[in-house]
Amino acid sequence: MKSAKSYKVWGWTITRTSLHPTREDFEQLRANYDTLSDLVLDELEPFRNGRDLYDLLKEEAERYEKDGRHGCDAAWRMWAQVHQIPGWVNWEQIARGQLPRYSVSVFMGLCFLSLLGGMGANRIVETLAKTGGFSPKSARRRMFETTQHILQCCQNLESIKPGGQGFRATLKVRLLHAQVRRRILNLVNLKPEYFDVETNGIPINDLDSIATIISFSASLMFMSLPRQGLYPTSQEIADYLALWRLVAHYMGVPTNPLATPAVAKAYMESLWEYEINPSPKSQILSRNIIVSLTGQPPLYTSADYLVAQARWLVGDELCNALGLPGASFQSKLLMGGQCLIFCFYVYSGKIVRRWERSRIERLKKVWYQVIVGKRTGLGEETDFEFKYIPSFVLATDEGKLDMKETRPIAERGWEHRSLCALIVTTIILALVLTLTIRAIEKILANSSLVVTVLRQNLKSI
Questions:
Q1: Which residues have a Cβ under 8 Å from the Cβ of 371 and sit 6 or more positions away?
Q2: Residue 45 to residue 56: CA distance in whole angstroms
Q3: What's the predicted TM-score (pTM) here?
Q4: Is 13 helix (H, G, I), strand (E, B) or coil?
């Protein structure tokens, strides 16, 4: 129930402070966007000839630096901007923020809270739907491409420094966003009703970009991990947000929303309140995510279990608004088993640091192979080229969500592991309970014997 300052929005309690941006603040952000990227495209496109945009950007920027008369001014300005590292960057903190300890739980949160839950932002969905990237056939690949970018940013410290793999991927994504924006606006010039700029703002505007960065950072720290039983320290939260603040700098996105954990949380809550308003397209895209992942590697999970994960991490209220069906009690129990697995690995690693370090190194290699490898992932590294191209005839189809499952649980990878975790935990709890009861019985028996002896001694006196 709403009070003067505290109230619930989509199951999350918000206590407004002076740090929380207002609707008017968001409208101003919606009116702005990364104009520099658009200027760079205008300069580079005429003589691109199929070349990689990042390589061309670097080449033209360096040429301009040597002789401004024969290079591209906007390309040089972007190159200078991303290489001018802000004073708030602490490279030791950035390295700590690459958070391999929570990696598996973070990726679960990215999939269900950030991406699926993020489909509740109806204005952003309007842009996503125009690309067709979240159709039933392409949604899984689209999510894996996003995951590859995140893995590249978190690989090691050198990867996120200028020239590193994560740095390169981030600039390519920035230019990709500019291509999508320019394509949609060109179509609007031909057919104004194609995209409602007045209502939704310029495609991929500053508010859209901030919302994406917040969903990949603050939402995971303050919402997703705690809902999985994991509670990062204040230092871990600050470190992780610092990493994504640097990514925002490279992306040409305002970085103030990530200035401190308190500010980031305030932005997250205001976004949750003002921007989450599911539309029919939101329902189509969120259901397509479930359809695209059902029975697919690397987890081979059922639709019912995927819905249980979504409801656990996103919340029933928003999942209902997104048109997701209910999940069975069995899948909810298995989701609890999954959280037990994550908690065991994280908290045991904090105790046995040597074991954690070896596990982290192994996880880095395994996760990248899972996402990029031929057997379970993309097949090869994505180059973040402009593949999902908006057009007048392109529409995002709705997949058929089948909640029936005929495969035995032993063939459903992650569900089987969750079941094993539940069984092991139940056995351990039963043993602990049995030993505790026996210990109490023994104590009581000894106490009774002591009382009997005391009574006999008193009688003899």
A1: 144, 147, 148, 151, 377, 378
A2: 10
A3: 0.90
A4: strand
